[in-house]
Write a structure and sequence with these properties.
Radius of gyration: 19 Å
InterPro entries: Aminoacid_DH-like_N_sf (IPR046346), NAD(P)-bd_dom_sf (IPR036291), SDH_C (IPR041121), Shikimate_DH (IPR011342), Shikimate_DH-bd_N (IPR013708), Shikimate_DH_fam (IPR022893), Shikm_DH/Glu-tRNA_Rdtase (IPR006151)
Function: Involved in the biosynthesis of the chorismate, which leads to the biosynthesis of aromatic amino acids. Catalyzes the reversible NADPH linked reduction of 3-dehydroshikimate (DHSA) to yield shikimate (SA).
Pathway: Metabolic intermediate biosynthesis; chorismate biosynthesis; chorismate from D-erythrose 4-phosphate and phosphoenolpyruvate: step 4/7
Keywords: Amino-acid biosynthesis, Aromatic amino acid biosynthesis, NADP, Oxidoreductase
Bound molecules: 2'-monophosphoadenosine-5'-diphosphate
CATH architecture of the largest domain: 3-Layer(aba) Sandwich
Number of domains: 2
CATH superfamily of the largest domain: NAD(P)-binding Rossmann-like Domain
Strand order of the largest sheet: 2-1-3-5-6-4
Subunit structure: Homodimer.
Order of helices and strands: EHEHEHEHEEHEHEHEHEEHEHHH
Low-confidence stretches: none
Structural class: alpha/beta
Shape: globular
Length: about 280
């Protein structure tokens, strides 16, 4: 094999993966910073996943992002996991280390918090309770990061109650479970309101939780980014709340992976938003 330095490769693995915006995002950064590298989408069948992950470093891959449906599966394949990935039980970023080990990390919560810190000026997570709607995989990352940021209480509400109960068992008694039919009441007196369900996403029904308790003192955010303005965000804007859309979370969660793989901490700005929106 040639001794010439290899062009570093990274990518995103999922199935399907064609919808992923990550190639636009990383492609924009590679181009902007003049880095000789490539980022490619890879649709890999479940029975090929483990072999593929072992083979990619030999092909010059320095790491990959992981998306649906493999975020949990890769935790069993990785040799090492970060504390936050272990806590969440899922990984979205793998680093192929020089010693051959696969390191799994989860940067979704980091992306969520960074987005709020940068987009909602003066947001103080410690100032009051947060309401988290939904208790799926995304909710786990959001809950972990909110607790880490010092939120005093999380009121969690999910259509399927047992999933919210499981989160409370896993994350402790700063979580209070609220029945889904009572979710609107949970908003009363909250500082931060987050939708982590897929409701409101293009092709899905709207979130129908009553929103009368929204107040202009609140920071309201949605992890849905297509469309950029969901019913939750529209009503929150009308109430004078500080509103943060979900696209920023997608952009910020990509920063630690890019930095580890390509050796440069990239900027999240309007140019990047436009590149990803296409
Ligand atoms: P992700 O990893 O993106 O969070 P997920 O684990 O499938 O995906 O979770 C999707 C979330 O959206 C869940 O909270 C789900 O509620 P259930 O646990 O009751 O399924 C929520 N969700 C999806 N469709 C919904 C609907 N029609 N009404 C209420 N909640 C819904």
């Amino acid at each position: 094999m040639s001794d010439a330095p290899r062009i570093p490769l990274a990518g995103v693995i999922g199935s399907p993966v064609a919808h992923s915006r990550s190639p636009f995002l990383h492609g924009h950064w590679l181009c902007r910073y003049g880095i000789r590298g490539h980022y490619v989408p890879m649709d890999i069948a479940p029975d090929r996943l483990a072999d593929a992950l072992r083979m990619l470093p030999e092909l010059g891959f320095v790491g990959v992002n992981i998306t649906v449906p493999y975020k949990e599966t890769v935790m069993d394949i990785a040799d090492l996991t970060s504390d936050r990935a272990a806590l969440i039980g899922a990984a979205n970023t793998l680093i192929f280390r020089k010693d051959g080990k696969i390191h799994a990390d989860n940067t979704d919560g980091y992306g969520f918090i960074e987005n709020l810190r940068q987009s909602a000026e003066g947001w103080d997570p410690t100032s009051g309770p947060a309401v988290v709607l939904g208790a799926g995989g995304a909710a786990r990352a959001v809950v972990a990061s909110l607790l880490d940021a010092g939120v005093p209480e999380i009121r969690i509400s999910n259509r399927t109650r047992i999933r919210a109960d499981t989160l409370r068992e896993d994350f402790g008694n700063r979580l209070k479970v609220v029945e889904w039919v009572q979710a609107g009441n949970a908003i009363e007196g909250a500082s931060t309101v987050v939708n982590t369900t897929s409701l409101g996403m293009t092709g899905k029904p709207e979130l129908r939780v009553p929103l009368d308790a929204l107040d202009k003192s609140m920071v309201v955010t949605d992890i849905v980014y297509a469309p950029l303005e969901t019913r939750l965000l529209r009503e929150a804007r009308d109430q004078g709340c500080t509103v943060v859309d979900g696209l920023g979370m997608l952009l910020h969660q990509a920063v630690p992976g890019f930095e580890r793989w390509f050796g440069l901490r990239p900027e999240v700005d309007d140019d990047l938003r436009q590149a990803v929106l296409g």
